[in-house]
Amino acid sequence: MEGLFFNVNNGYLEGIVRGYRNGLLTGANYTNMTQCETIDDLKLQLGPAYGDYLASLPPNPSTSSLAAKTTDKLVSEFRYVRANAVGSLAKFMDYLTYGYMIDNVALLITGTLHERDTRELLDRCHPLGWFETMPVLCVATNIEELYNSVLIETPLAAYFKGSLSHQDLDELNIEIVRNTLYKNYLEDFYQFVNTHPEMSGTPTAEVMSEILEFEADRRAINITLNSFGTELSKADRKKLYPAFGQLYPEGTLMLSRADDFEGVRLAVEGVGDYKAFFEAAGLGGGAGAPGNMAGGAGSESKSLEDMFYQKEMEISKSAFTRQFTFAIVYAWVKLREQEIRNITWIAECIAQNQKERINNYISVF
Amino acid sequence: MSTQEYKDRQFLAVIGDEDSVTGLLLAGIGHVTAAPDSQKNFLVVDNKTDNAAIEAAFERFTNERKDIGIILINQHIADRIRHVVDSYVKAFPTVLEIPSKDHPYDPEKDSVLRRVRRLFGE
Amino acid sequence: MSSAADREAVFPTRQSLGLMKAKLKGAETGHSLLKRKSEALTKRFREITRRIDEAKRKMGRVMQIASLSLAEVTYAVGGNIGYQIQESAKSARFRIRAKQENVSGVLLPAFEAYQTEGNNDFAMTGLGKGGQQVQRCRETYARAVEALVELASLQTAFVILDEVIKVVNRRVNAIEHVIIPRTENTIKYINSELDELDREEFYRLKKVANKKQRDTAASDAEMKQKREDKAALALLDQENQAPEEEDVGGGDILAGEDDEDVIF
Question: Acidic residues: which segments have biased composition (chain C) (predicted)?
């Protein structure tokens, strides 16, 4: 049924996005890239996919400028799709950008807290998280002003409301603020795809639920693992877990009580995928053995983080098997982001002459 | 040079590009002195930073601050103020040129290594 | 006549000769001691320069590894954390301590890295994503900084030793090429002056002796003459009061002559 009218508004964009997806680098491309001796070689390899965007780079560009240019391509494609989107797809894509907005806002809050000139921070903001009123944030010179008059005007206002006061912005670690916002954002997004009349019950809701649940679980696990040894209390930690996902509610409850890597492993045991990740990471890159990969010794075992990324890419890839869904936009953005990360990683390995770890990229095509 | 003078020097300072500074700060060398003057012991240099600012920071770390024992400076930034670095001959604080991510280390440019070379007539 | 120009301004006396001889001996001992010190320092210096050269080359590698670990953080966090790190830096966890090492009487400072407990400005960084990488990166960089601190110690030692060796060598050369020759010249000068004085004195004494001899001879001759005259006179009026006159007159004349001689 849902397919009946989908193409009226969104058929063109779905075609475009599928086209973009086909433009993603494949395993063969990556294999070629890893053979490169210099960044210039790499640039040449990227020619067919990124041509115009890399043209303005100087010979032997730095890895960060390479990353910036590849991101530019994603941004301009995203903007094109966004400009052509109407109705609920437009709204859906706005939701997609909120995640980046949170990072940008967190950055600006940090700047305001330290009384820096936030104007120069605008350059550092992620372009996807740009919103019209963002430059206005720079007008605020103290946190109270920022909270009361500026943040209210942003699309993120709803995420601040109810969970963070302006005192919190002052006192809490910016990471807690960021993660609180992110939790609220994920819950809202989840709610949105499942209740919006045009999306609930469609493949969009189905696929997006899977993706968002995974994202929620991943954050919960990461926050738990990373909070060991910090001043983040268990009660505060619990507040940062999104209230949905495969782990919710039993798993998150156990996570909130976990004291070590082992505790986290027990908490996630109910979910097959995560159990497998933890078994693989158990001896390797887990939090129980910090510093394992440090020093650049070519560690073969993948870190938990790597496996999460791998999983995310697989979910994103399978999203394209569905038709008449907005989820492919989300999936495409994530796949493209991973591609940029891969390129940056490979470039970095070439630049730092650390070829033994160059194969740590994640390719699903 | 009294013992006391370098007993107080317990910090490192860094003048570098963003990545170098970030990494070194992660290692925990960052220090901001107490308010109100809150002096940082690091300076991030990018293309927009002018040489006068770098020189001023170098001057501040080498001469004014009495609590800095080692100054790390990216080699490509040292190149920008080479005359100042080369004419700095004091033993304290020590100025150490380090490579940066995008600029591999070139021993030919290092002011200390050049002295080494000159001494051995190579 | 460089010797005349390059000597110390002293009176050529026996006392200053003694002083100069002591000084020469001191200079020679000092020279050999300093020479040995310079050799010891130079040995150390060469060792340090070799280690610097090595360490500087190694540093490139260490920093590359560290950079890659930062790249790993960027990869995992999915963004640049630079600004946040810069702003959250408050108190240095990684500090250095300077201690001293004594090499042939030169105090060489050496840095020692230590980490203060309990303050971690970045514990929360990457809480939602990439926190493990951040912590690993911290450790990698901490190790890299340790290597850098070690290198900094070497470099400080290098700069100080360089300076000290220059000073010591300057002293050695000064002693060898200036002080010792000059002292030797002074001694030579004093010796020659003293010899000269000796000769003068000898000559003078000889002169005096000559004159004395001459005078004595003259007075002897005069006396003889007088005596002969008197004898002749006595022979002339031998019959009258001759014996008394003779003794008194002869004695008076002799004493007078002698006095005059001494005064002259």
Answer: 242-264
> What's the rounded mean pLDDT across residues A74-96?
91
Chain B neighbors of C97, CB-CB under 8 A: 10
Using an 8 Å Cβ cutoff, are B92 and C163 in contact?
no
To the question of pTM greater than 0.80 for the whole model, the response is no
Residues 6+ apart with CB under 8 A from C252: none
Average pLDDT over residues C168-175: 89
CA distance from start to end of chain A: 31
Q: Tokens representing C164?
A: 């000290």
Interface probe for C, chosen from A221, A222, A304 (most Cβ of C below 10 Å), is A222
What is residue B40's three-state secondary structure? strand
**ipTM score for this prediction:** 0.84
Query: Measured between beta carbons, which residues in chain C are less than 8 angstroms from residue B101?
Result: 67, 70
Distance to chain A for B2, nearest Cα, Å: 38
- CA A298-A301-A304 angle, to 5 degrees, is 120
Residue A10: burial class (beta carbons within 10 Å; 0-12, 13-18, 19+): buried
Top mean pLDDT of A292-296, B36-40, C77-81, C159-163 is at: C159-163
Q: Hey, is the C-beta of B102 within 8 angstroms of any chain A C-beta?
A: yes
| E strands present in chain B | 11-16, 42-44, 68-74, 94-98
Q: What is the mean pLDDT of residues A57-73?
A: 87
Taking 70 as the threshold, does the pLDDT of residue B35 lie above it?
Answer: no
Q: Does the structure show a pLDDT above 60 at A283?
A: no
Interface of B with C in 8-67 (CB under 8 A): 9-12, 18-19, 21-32, 40-42, 44
H or E element at residue C102 = strand C94-103
A214-230 per-position pLDDT tens digit: 999 998 988 888 888 77
**Contact residues on chain A for C72, CB-CB shorter than 8 A:** 293
Do the chains contact at C159 and B98, CB–CB below 8 Å? Answer: no
Under an 8 A CB cutoff, do C98 and B32 touch? no
Distance (Å) from the alpha carbon of C136 to chain B's nearest alpha carbon: 10
Each residue's pLDDT tens digit, A297-334: 334 457 788 888 899 999 999 999 988 888 999 999 99
**Per this entry, what is the length of chain C?**
264
Contact criterion met (CB below 8 Å) for A241 and A258:
no
- Section C21-27 average pLDDT: 91
**A285-294, C1-10, C225-234: range with lowest mean pLDDT:** A285-294
Compute φ and ψ for A197, nearest 5 degrees: -55, -30
B66 touches chain A (CB under 8 A): no
Environment class of residue B107 by beta-carbon count within 10 Å: exposed (0-12), middle (13-18) or buried (19+)?
A: middle
Residues of B (93-122) whose Cβ lies below 8 Å from C: 94, 96, 98-101, 104-105, 107, 110, 112-113, 115-116, 119-120
The CA-based angle B71-B75-B81, given to 5 degrees, is 80
| Cβ pair A210, A315 in contact under 8 A | yes
Residues 6+ apart with CB under 8 A from C116: C91, C92, C93, C94, C95
Question: What's the first-to-final CA gap in chain B, in angstroms?
Answer: 32
Is A165 touching B (CB cutoff 8 A)?
A: no
Q: How far is CA A363 from its chain centroid? A: 17
Nearest chain A CA: its distance from C56 CA (Å): 17
- CA-nearest of B115, B15, B5 to B58 is B15
C chain contacts of residue B110, beta-carbon cutoff 8 Å: 56
**Contacts with A261 (C-beta within 8 Å, 6 or more apart), sequence order:** A225, A228, A286, A287, A288
